[in-house]
TrEMBL record:
It comes from Saccharopolyspora gloriosae. Belongs to the bacterial solute-binding protein 2 family. The keyword Signal applies. Residues 54-309 form the Periplasmic binding protein domain. The keyword Lipid metabolism does not apply. Signal peptide: none annotated. Keywords: Signal. One of its GO terms (cellular component) is cell envelope. Residues 27-46 are annotated as: Disordered. This is Ribose transport system substrate-binding protein. Its main location: other.
Length: 348
């Protein structure tokens, strides 16, 4: 989330309202009540405020997307002169992450930004932080209870699947393909996020009279992506379109595709890695698009944490406070718009 102030619209609206009020009174018309939303904006978010110490905890950076989450958080904090950033060492061990958050609580940081390895398992320690007067920004993997966080920011997994389906349906129609064979390479099936992505994809296709003909599930790694894509390609003599949930596992998926010499279908990725965007821009690959699940949400989480402590709202919104939840949008990146999104592509 950019810290650049954009108050002109709200200021202009307020000035216009004041002028209209004055004109109405001079004309002996009934007074017009000023629109209260025009005076309730959060102010200049870019202006330095009270010094804030932000504690940050996330899982180990064991693949590109997760590494980008931590990198983005750190970069955002370093760009804010009134923020001190205190990050724990990333760990995917739930008990270790709990212990690290407890340390940050004991150090009495002003606010916590937590991307939990497991939302359910980290709920209790986040609730303890909240009860100790430390607001919590919950990133992506949601805690089990809303009283464990002040604000949640994360991606739209269901919407990601819907947008992938809509793009695939439109492209198949453009190509004049009837009765297509559509495949899905999911992430880890036991995770709610994978289930939501698959549900969105299935429902999106159904709206177009289409369905998933072949489905395999990988584990968000290049190795599992290559293994499962190999199985898929061996089982399906022909495919028209493939949606791969994750661009990190997509590295392995593409290795399997190239090894098999298959190019009769087009592939839509997921998350928005720079590698996939480069392939989309260059053309000549089965990769035609990727649906964003952008790690820039972690940059925004740091910005939100700062505003919470400084008791500010968001300058482009009328509310005095930071909203309760923010869901990012899963834009579809294609060759036509890829230049617009290259700056948020992450390294796989």
């Amino acid at each position: 989330m950019s810290a650049t102030p954009r108050r002109g619209f709200l200021f202009g609206t307020g000035a216009l309202g004041a002028t209209a009020l004055l004109t109405g009174c001079l004309a002996n018309d009934p007074p017009q009540r000023q629109n209260p939303s025009a005076v309730a904006a959060g102010g200049d978010n870019a202006a330095p405020g009270t010094q804030v110490t932000i504690g940050f905890s996330a899982p180990a950076a064991d693949h590109g997307w997760m590494a980008a989450m931590t990198t983005n958080a750190r970069a955002q904090a370093e760009g804010l002169p009134d923020v001190t950033f205190r990050a724990t060492e990333g760990s995917s061990d739930v008990n270790q992450q709990i212990a690290q958050v407890e340390t940050l609580i004991n150090e009495q940081v002003d606010v916590l930004v937590i991307l939990p390895a497991d939302g359910k398992a980290l709920t209790d320690v986040a609730r303890r932080a909240t009860r100790a007067g430390i607001p919590v920004v919950n990133v992506d993997r949601v805690f089990d209870s809303s009283d464990a966080y002040r604000v949640w920011i994360g991606g739209d997994n269901h919407g990601m699947g819907v947008n992938a389906a809509d793009h695939i349906a439109a492209e198949l129609e453009r190509r004049g393909v009837t009765d297509p064979v559509i495949a899905e390479i999911a992430g880890t099936d036991s995770l709610p996020l994978t289930q939501e992505r698959s549900a969105g994809f299935r429902e999106g296709l159904q709206r177009h009279g289409l369905r998933v003909a072949r489905r395999v599930a990988a584990d968000f790694t290049a190795e599992s992506g290559e293994r499962q894509a190999t199985n898929l390609l061996q089982a399906a003599a022909h495919l028209d379109a493939v949606w791969n949930h994750d661009d990190d596992q997509g590295i392995g998926v593409l290795a399997a595709v190239e090894a098999a010499g298959r190019e009769e279908f087009f592939l839509v990725g997921g998350a928005g890695s720079r590698d996939m965007m480069d392939r989309i821009k260059a053309g000549g690959s089965v990769v035609q698009a990727t649906v964003l699940y952008n790690p820039s949400m972690c940059s925004s989480a740091i910005a939100l944490a700062r505003l919470l402590v400084q008791a500010r709202g968001m300058s482009d919104l009328a509310e005095h406070e930071v909203p309760r939840s923010i869901t990012t949008y899963s834009a579809v990146v294609t060759r036509e718009n890829v230049d617009q999104y290259l700056d948020v592509g992450f390294a796989s």
